[in-house]
Amino acid sequence: MIRNYLKISKSFFDLKANNKKLLSLLVISYILDTLIALALPFLVAQIVECATVRNFDQTFFYIILLGISYVIYNLLYHWSYVTYAHNADYTYNKLQEMITEKVVNYDEQFTKKMSKSYLINTTSNDLWYVYGMHDNIFDILSNVVYLIGSIIILCSVNIYLGLLAFIFSLLYLQLNNYLTKKRDYHLLSQRRWQDKIVGFFGEILDGNKEIKTFDMKNELNTHLNAMKRGWKKAYFSKRKYYDAKTALLPALLHIGKLLLYLILIIMLAHEQITIGILVLIIGYYDEIYDGNICINNLYNDLCSNSVRITRLNKILNYHSKNMIQDGNVLNDDIFGIVDFEHVSFEYENKPILKDITLHFKPKTLYAIVGHSGCGKSTIFRLLLRLYKPNSGEILIDGTDIFLYSREVYASNVAIVTQKPFIFNMSIKENFDLVDSNMEHQIQVCKRVGIHDFIMSLQKGYHTILKEDGTNISGGQKQLIALARTLLSKAEILLFDEVTSSLDPNTTKQIIGILKDLKKDHTIIMVTHKPSLMKIADSIVVIDQGKVVGRGKHKDLLKNKYYQNLQK
């Protein structure tokens, strides 16, 4: 039991999510609380002993000393609960930040090895229990110390009697019921905020590609912090009643004890009763009994939490050979020349790209075409640095793409996907994740032709979009995603089957936008639509991971692979 206790405790503190200062204060409060708790029965024994020999001056001295000890004990108990609350708040927020940081930076294998439900349950249910484990750990330790001390002192102390127990117990239960209702009310509010936070984590998982592409981490944390402030307010409101219920309310019973002792002393003075040392002995016995039950319950909780720590560590310690390390090249003066030089890539030992050499230049619209599974999307995944090639190099302006810093790369290479992800926040807040300048937002919305639609909405740019933009059409969602991409001011724009599910009118609008954008961007699109192939300045035909054709639409009509695609 001791070995497992130490092992679990170490695994919790190895998370490095505690505030060291608050943790030190918590340890001190537990130590002082335990020492005073051990002294209380001794003081009671002295009261009984002095009263027995009718040394009332000394007896009243020990009663006063006992009253002071009770006050100090309750103040220390209150101190420990306040310290616990602040450290728990720190730990909860710290673990959330650590998980967000890890999830945003993981490769695509991460979500394949761990399901979304595992991630959500771990970041909600498991995290909910783990963040307060330091209290569980110190509770066990203090109870063990108290249990050992009680056993040592057992033979030299006395039992106590409780003449006013019923009155004070009834009053205690009434107040306890009131405080419990208040606590549960704020607990419900706290869980609602927790549900919002968990839902937002789900959005982060669904929109992971956009987050990486646009480097939204800091802006998302700002939005998350607003939710956490609501959670924190509800949490500390709940803690107020929980603190009063658990730490302050027992003072009522302590007052009852003091009154009881005074009554007993008066009775002794009139020689009505005789009290022996057995009073305190029974008291220590009861404490030992309760201590064993408490340690058993706490230890069971600790063992349950060890499973939750294991689940958290599975996320925090995830590692894959495909994980990409950001470079440190800070040159942001990107012209937009993209080169694939003899690039080969395998996925799970299956060849996907085979010795690909490509050249893309600025102010040009390129189309990459081919049958499903030929390697088109893999070219984009490599360009987005989601994978590293097994051999060859990918260069932007002559520099290996993996040498650029995350910030520089995210601001120069952006993608619009077939199914872009929109967050459950206002249109402006979605744009704010990339660029919070309102003038820039209006400018790009006008350029893609979505500004008039946005202004026709009752709240304009402050209109709240449902999760993944389900309250607007697919075409409107695609144009908002395109505007968001342009806000990144990226020189290189990637379009992945952006018109595959759009109506003809919106597709025609997208074609016009692509023609306009090529004036000042390097544009590469993956498409299966002949209408888009025809407007491309250069087409790359891929088949089974190899380049099997290049040129304009009319030049490729004699290419058998391209002919097959047209059919």
What can you see in these coordinates?
The protein has 567 residues and is an alpha/beta fold. It folds into 2 domains: 2-316, ABC transporter transmembrane region fold (Up-down Bundle); 338-566, P-loop containing nucleotide triphosphate hydrolases (Rossmann fold, 3-Layer(aba) Sandwich). The protein has 21 helices and 11 strands. The chain has helices at 2-13, 20-52, 56-105, 108-113, 116-130, 133-153, 165-206, 208-214, 217-248, 250-269, 278-316, 376-383, 406-410, 427-432, 438-448, 451-456, 474-487, 504-517, 530-535, 553-556, 560-566; strands spanning 158-159, 338-347, 350-360, 364-369, 391-396, 399-400, 413-416, 492-496, 522-526, 538-543, 546-551. The strands form 2 sheets. The chain has a 6-stranded mixed β-sheet, with helices on both faces. Strands 3-2-5-6 form a 4-stranded antiparallel β-sheet, covered by helices on one side. Helix 2 (20-52) packs parallel to helix 10 (250-269) and helix 5 (116-130) runs antiparallel to helix 7. The model is unreliable at 157-163 (pLDDT under 50).
